[in-house]
Amino acid sequence: MFLRVLGGFVLAFKKMKLTIDNFDNAGARDYTEWIDEECLPKVVRRLNAPWKMTCGLILADSSFVVPCAGAHVLLSTNSGTPLFTGYLDGVPEEEYLGWNERGPQYRLALSASSDDVILDRQTLPPRPAFVERGAGQILAALCDDVSQGQVSTSGAEDVEALQSYFASVRHSWSEHAAR
């Protein structure tokens, strides 16, 4: 069981699963058993910005495969509800912890950014201004432009109708989402 103190409350993470796909044709591997109890997964969510997840993994045996930079990360409940999905920001940092009966022990510090970073890496194509369109429709159109229809926008809601909105190619998808 994993415990985390948050705002005076102790939260138990009994039913959490961490999988990482290194894109090595082996599929997503389960890394849950290697989560470091001193460095539990922490997800920082910010409005209109990519979310960040950090955690530590203990290299315990020879079956451990070190995640590669850019690997896909999924933190979910055991029932499959996603808590975070994204990609590793780089090669995990290694920290020497000492020696035990199995040999040297290391902790890997993982840092990942949410899936929006993929949308932010793409350049928006030039397009005319949106006129008399809902904010959800505009965001869905921009998402389709950069993801070429591979991201579902079925949950986008029109929270406000805008008289006009110009989507500059100089700004990222997240910057447009913030506006």
Mean pLDDT: 82
CATH third-level topology of the largest domain: Thrombin, subunit H
Supply the helix-strand structural class: mainly beta
Estimate percent helicity. 10-25%
Count of separate structural domains: 2
Low-confidence stretches: 1-12
Order of helices and strands: EEEEEEEEEEHEHEH
Binned strand content: 35-45%
> How far is it from the N-terminal to the C-terminal residue, by CA?
41 Å
What overall geometry do the principal axes of the alpha carbons give?
elongated
Main sheet attributes: strand count, strand direction, barrel closure: 8 strands, antiparallel
Extended strand count: 12
CATH architecture of the largest domain, by name, is Beta Barrel
Please give the CATH class of the largest domain: Mainly Beta
Treating each run of at least 4 consecutive H or I residues as one helix, how many helices? 3
Specify Rg, calculated over alpha carbons.
20 Å
Topology:
Layout: E1 2-6, E2 9-13, E3 16-21, E4 28-30, E5 42-44, E6 52-59, E7 72-77, E8 82-88, E9 93-100, E10 103-114, H1 116-121, E11 130-134, H2 135-147, E12 161-165, H3 173-178
Antiparallel strand pairs: 1-2, 3-4, 3-7, 5-6, 6-10, 7-8, 8-10, 9-10, 11-12
